[in-house]
TrEMBL record:
The chain crosses the membrane at residues 390-411. GO terms for biological process: negative regulation of fatty acid biosynthetic process. Keywords: ATP-binding, Kinase, Membrane, Nucleotide-binding, Serine/threonine-protein kinase, Transferase, Transmembrane, Transmembrane helix. Residues 326-383 are annotated as: Disordered. One of its GO terms (molecular function) is protein serine/threonine kinase activity. It comes from Corynebacterium wankanglinii. Residues 361-375 have a biased composition (Pro residues). It is an enzyme of class 2 (transferase). It holds the Pfam family Pkinase. InterPro entries: Kinase-like_dom_sf, Prot_kinase_dom, Ser/Thr_kinase_AS. Residues 14-269 form the Protein kinase domain. It catalyses: L-threonyl-[protein] + ATP = O-phospho-L-threonyl-[protein] + ADP + H(+); L-seryl-[protein] + ATP = O-phospho-L-seryl-[protein] + ADP + H(+). Residues 336-360 have a biased composition (Low complexity). This is non-specific serine/threonine protein kinase.
């Protein structure tokens, strides 16, 4: 799969800087909007899907859906193009990371942290549900955390208007671990389907794992038709029973037994938070996210003026890509495990989560350690004078000293000394 190089211009306006993340359908690049001079994210469809009408329609649907939705808990979309050889979506640049990356860094969340994440996600999802839209792909990968710790819902590529989707097809669409039962068995899909997926996300936030598994993706998908989601407290200590009830209601196998939509789920979550007196909490920004690693490389704003990327700039972008996407041929999405040296999987422990402390500031930056002064090597002293210069300087000094000495003698005794009288006898 070919990647766009630094300096490539999309639609004569958006200049590619470097890649941020990659999925099975598209790659996200950090770009500069040459017209407005701002950084944006370009979600560019992979070239093997450009001429596929199904995928083009999905891209177009995502653009239209997100353009209709405006809320601080949703990722903003600015532009869309399906003309020419590139199909892309221009959207808000998020420099934080994904909820998936945060879970990989810290493991299961305590109740107050999980509530803070779910509150932001459900707030954004409720805006979509109020517009009659069903997201159909709720999962931690599609929940972003920006640099100011705001939770944002993204990736509406599978969104459908509820009225347009009375029944599923024989093709399962979505991510297996988070599918609702009706997405698997072909029952009508409603906002309650997103509620089920959001309940799975809450289960994963509390326990660090998803509830079902299977030897094959199909077996994994069908597992939710035969069993209920277990109580989170049965897998990890410290989960209040009220959270068990939240998960049980959200993930009921019968859609009529669930919360009606995201706003109902959010109201129940707020009731539980008040009952348990959970403190307000600022969701931390992932430190090892792909977006954060991309932000370590400064944007070449000179590209915004339309200048051609230099070889050094292109080399820097290639280096960034290798750092972000080691093993570039693998068509999988970026995850911390793939982008960093292998680390042990997080155990179901909340030790990496600090106690609730809203408004925590960044950790102080330690003062740099004193550096030893460079030592000169022993031996001949270093001088910026040449040997000829030194010799000429010495000769000049000697001449001056001799001249001064002669002058002193002449004026002191030679010129004004007494001359003895000479008497010449007469003949």
């Amino acid at each position: 799969m070919a990647s766009l190089s630094a300096g490539t211009t999309l639609d004569g306006r958006y200049v590619v800087d470097r890649p941020i993340a990659r999925g099975g359908m598209a790659t996200v690049y950090r770009c500069v909007d040459a017209r407005l001079g701002r950084e944006v994210a370009a979600k560019v469809m992979h070239e093997q899907f450009v001429h596929d009408d199904v995928f083009r329609d999905r891209f177009r649907r995502e653009a239209r859906a997100m353009a209709q939705l405006s809320h601080p808990n949703l990722v903003n979309v600015y532009d869309f193009s399906a003309s020419g050889g590139e199909v892309f979506l221009i959207m808000e640049l998020i420099t934080g990371g994904t909820l998936r990356e945060l879970l990989a860094e810290r493991g299961p969340m305590p109740p107050h942290a999980a509530a803070a994440v779910m509150r932001g996600m459900l707030t954004g999802l409720s805006v979509a549900h109020a517009k009659g839209m069903v997201h159909r792909d709720i999962k931690p990968d599609n929940v972003l955390i920006d640099a100011s710790s705001r939770v944002k819902l993204s990736d509406f590529g599978l969104v459908r208007a509820a009225a347009e989707t009375p029944q599923s097809t024989d093709q399962i669409v979505g991510t297996v671990a988070y599918l609702s039962p009706e997405q698997v068995d072909g029952s009508p899909i409603t906002a309650a389907s997103d509620v089920y997926s959001a309940g799975i996300v809450l289960f994963e936030l509390l326990t660090g794992r998803t509830p079902f598994s299977g030897d094959t993706p199909l077996a994994h998908a069908y597992a939710r038709l035969r069993a209920d989601v277990p109580a989170p407290s049965s897998l990890i200590a410290g989960v209040p029973k009220l959270f068990d009830e939240l998960v049980a209601t959200a993930t009921a196998r019968n859609p009529r037994d669930r919360f009606h939509d995201a706003s109902d789920f959010l109201a129940a979550l707020d009731d539980v938070a008040r009952e348990l007196r959970l403190p307000a909490y600022t969701v931390p920004v992932p430190r090892n996210s792909a977006a954060h690693r991309a932000a370590e490389f400064p944007t070449n704003f000179g590209l915004a003026a339309g200048a051609t990327a230099s070889a050094a700039s292109a080399g820097s972008a290639r280096a960034a890509q290798q750092r972000l996407f080691p093993g570039d041929d693998a068509p999988t999405r970026v995850s911390p495990a793939a982008a960093r040296p292998a680390q042990p999987a997080p155990t179901p422990s909340r030790g990496q989560w600090p106690a609730a402390a809203p408004g925590r500031g960044p950790a102080p930056v330690p003062a740099p350690a004193p550096q030893p002064r460079p030592q000169r090597p022993a031996g001949k002293p270093v001088s910026n004078r040449s040997a000829i210069g030194v010799a000429l300087y010495t000769v000049v000094v000697i001449v001056v000293v001799v001249a001064v000495g002669l002058g002193a003698w002449w004026f002191g005794s030679g010129m004004y000394g007494e001359i003895p009288e000479i008497i010449v006898p007469r003949a």
